[in-house]
Amino acid sequence: MKKSLSVIISASMAATLFSTVAVGAASPKSSVDFSDLNQLDAGTKAKFDAMIVTGIFDGVSDGVFGLHDKMNRAQFAKVAALIFGLKVETSRSVSSFRDVSAADPANGYALPYIEALKAANLTDGYGDNTYNPGGEVTKEQLAAFLMRGLNKEAEARSNGGVNDSTVSGWAKGYVALAVQMGLLENQISGTFGGNSPATRDMLVTSSYEAKRQYVPGSRAEISSAGNTTAAKAEIPDEVSTTYPLTANTQAQIKSVVQEKTANGWRVGAVIKLSNASSSTVRIPDYELRIQTADGTVYTLQPSASNASSILPQGNVTLSYMTDIEMKKDITLSKLLWVDVDQDVYPKRETVLANAAIDSIVWRGNDAVIQDQVLLGDWGALFSIPGETSALKYSAVNMSKQFTGQTPTYIVEVQAKNEGSYAETIPNFVLSGKAEGQSFIGKRVEETPIVIEAGGQKSIHFAITTDTDTKLNAFYVLSAESFLKQGQNGPIQYYTGRIGFRLPANDGFATGAVGSSYIFGTPMAFKQMNDFINPSLNVSLEELHVTKNEENGNKTGLAKFKLINKSDKPIPVPTFGAELAGNEGKTYAGSRQTVSTQDIAPGTGIIVSYGFTLPSTEQSEKYQLNVQEVLSNSAYKSTIASYKVSIQNDNDHNSISLYPFKLNLKSWTLSQLTTMGTTGFSYTYKLNLDMDMERDAEVVLDTNFSKMKFELVDSLGRSLGSSSFPFTGTNRLVSGSQNLSFSNLTQDQIQNKVSIKVYETVNTPTGEVNRFITELK
């Protein structure tokens, strides 16, 4: 079974991508060169162009791309090798598969690429030492292969999978993750169609997304000796040199800092001392000195908080610092451990050890990582320099938020414990680096985070920059401190050595954009999410965007249903929601005021979010991000992301106002005039006959939506409005009812009055009105 599964997965390599690849062409082709691509929308054309111009795809004939042609396994092998940057031995002419031959006129060209896939551990063939190069590919096979290419197989296998009868059991996890990451989409019917043939248009768009999200070096490859090599790009750990000071005591340099001050320089070092004996030893009585390139030597003072002894087989961290009053640049070159014997005259000095430090000096805010090996790409694994730890880290997501008028970058870092014991994440931060500037961030989670052996968790960093700053990298900084003798508070500072670049798109739409959402289906949240209880099903029931003529903008209203599937009450989570349009503009949702604190077992509630959009926003489909509020801070992190189409507003016969379905069967508006002591008063009464259906699973909150009826005269002027609830006194009911309007803005009877119907929701920022229909 394992063999056939692997074969099926590699079948996803089948793709009739191209008949030829443009090599050495006089000018690169683009979508305009193919007649069957003319009708694509601009966004899709851009993806096709990116793949065509680079030679990954070409047409099936001159002027025809073959948009809906099927793919085969040989054709996709070549594209996959190019997408994932595999090492291809183009001169290879003998295959390890018995059905792949360089002499094959149809598929022989793919032999080196097929072998590259095998070497990269992406396929072991179709069974019985065959590859089946001419075989077709299904959608679910394509999904599985892409997950393997992105090094997501373990994550896919641990995924709960899709509840979709059109997807084979073995592929459910692969399909769920591929859809969640935005590589493939469901059909119009809402199902995936796992066994339907994968076509060239699917391959282009999925390959584009896979190439965009691919982290270089993230696959396990097989060496010529048959051994599996490193699985993910990693910033190399620095080899720590040990300096023996006594028979049982060794020193390692954790960090060296050189920072500008008002009078010159502040120079410091952090040293780790270890005790190799079986008994407690005192800290050796030595001086730590620092030497500049011109031979000048300065003695560093020990921190008042330094330990005085080291436990058996233990280690301690010691801090040293001094101020150098010299307003010219200096270059630190060596660190010296010196034993000073004061009992003889003249005193005797013995250098116990010296270390070259010119390559590890951190120059504070002026520091720039020059060694490109130590500046990895986004997503590369790294360890914290100077820490003895089995924890590995990688940046996985970034968003740009605003604190007042200034931007703040929220970077999510995933930490994984590859050791055998539980570990606590050490005290480190990220710094945003721009040209000539550094911006020290802070960790959002303030409490210690412990990761069990084999476990992983996410931590978040907030880096606030100037308004016009363009970051180019993030540096990994360790927090250090030094306590002067006689002082109450320590000097806090940071040192670093490694960093990583921003994601290719500058992080404005990082992470996987999810699949096209099917209304009413439970949302899948990212792993390691502790914000949404796993027994709580969260689904989007409605998303409407309507014109707000009074304010000259548009109003968006999203309705989430939260269902408690457990046997205990679950607190209502206060998650955030935002919409992003086609042009990348993002709109934050204002959460409805909710009085319900807990959701009872077997029941659900509705939580609405209102959005204010400009009248120029023309998107019919939005990216909906559901966000976790981080550690009671103002910062948020996306935990689910989907492409969502707005719902068309129905006429009065079919109004969706979840959990209600309304049918305004008939209505009559009557005008009443009353003579009072101060003159005439005017009242309108609406006789409304309405059918109501309701989802009984949902319990209405006291702040649930209301229906607002606004009277409008023939010139479009508002005469007045009244809102009616679905709960409590004067609630709307199924059947005939009379609704009164008073406190009108006009003091005379109007003819040709129409009624605008809205759904209205109260939020902390004001009332959100969704226009539904107009009764005339």
Automatic annotation (TrEMBL):
Leader sequence residues: 1-24
Query: What range(s) does the SLH domain occupy?
Result: 97-160
Recorded hits in InterPro entries, A to Z, give: SLH_dom
Is this entry keyworded Zinc-finger? no
Parts of the chain that traverse the membrane? none
Q: Does the keyword Protein biosynthesis apply?
A: no
Per its record, how is this protein called by name?
Answer: S-layer homology domain-containing protein
Alphabetic keyword roster: Signal
